[in-house]
Design a protein that fits this description.
Length: 148
């Protein structure tokens, strides 16, 4: 685990730069081809000793998916993005869910929405989710994948 910690605390991994905004349309095309993706937010993370990143993409996947399926979808996205970021850039993919109120609030307040599958459907889902109790702290499992 210490290895992962150091890895995610490097804001310039291997001297690479954050993926430039001009590459966002390429990412959006991949998001749109992945039906499990509901919404994507782009933001910066500065959590000293935990994670530093100028290119984090918070990805909200369908709530009805099992956690393992969400991780597999994230791996597939990372693999698709690898060809876009190689060899000069990096990006971090963070699994986010409105059920995790604290993480969701951080992503929404600090980020910009760069992709929404269907705005009306997403708004309805958010309304339903916010009527449910949030996940408990012991349920919280923050997943981040760095794409180099």
């Amino acid at each position: 685990m210490a290895n992962e910690q150091n890895f995610l605390d490097d804001p310039r991994p291997e001297g690479r730069q954050p993926i430039p905004p001009g590459h966002i349309p390429l990412l959006e095309a991949i998001f749109s081809q992945t039906p499990e993706v509901e919404m994507v937010l782009a933001f910066t993370v500065r959590a000293e000793g935990v994670m530093q990143s100028d290119a984090t993409f918070g990805i909200w996947l369908r709530e009805d998916m099992a956690h393992e399926d969400k991780l597999e979808t994230m791996r597939q996205l990372a693999q698709a993005f690898h060809v876009i970021v190689e060899p000069n850039y990096y990006l971090d993919l963070m699994l986010v869910s409105p059920r995790d109120r604290a993480l969701w609030q951080m992503a929404v307040e600090n980020g910009d929405i760069i992709y929404v599958r269907e705005e009306e459907a997403v708004a309805q889902q958010l309304e339903q989710i916010f009527q449910q109790p949030p996940i408990a702290d012991e349920e919280r499992d923050i997943e981040v994948m760095r794409v180099l």
